[in-house]
Amino acid sequence: MEHACCGLKVGQSVSDFKMETFEPAKGDFGEISLEALKKAGKWTILFFYPADFTFV
Residue 29 needs a FRET pair 20 to 30 A away by CA distance; which of 2, 4, 21, 51 works? Predict the structure, then answer.
């Protein structure tokens, strides 16, 4: 049985995106983009937990 879940596999590139974040040091919300992380030379791990809408 073929599993048709996700369009990406390990090692494939991800399209740029922006998302709202919570910055505990500032106690406020901010925004981050994948492009900004790449330009800064930051390692990035994308983790999605679709059934939970709480802060992790």
Answer: 51
- The model's pLDDT over 14-42, given as tens digits with 9 standing for 90+, comes to 889 998 988 888 899 999 999 999 999 98
Q: Which two tokens stand for residue 31?
A: 């925004």
Locus of tokens 């492009």: 35
Residues 6 or more apart from 16 whose CB is under 8 A from it? 33, 34, 35
| Phi, psi at 20, each rounded to 5° | -80, 140
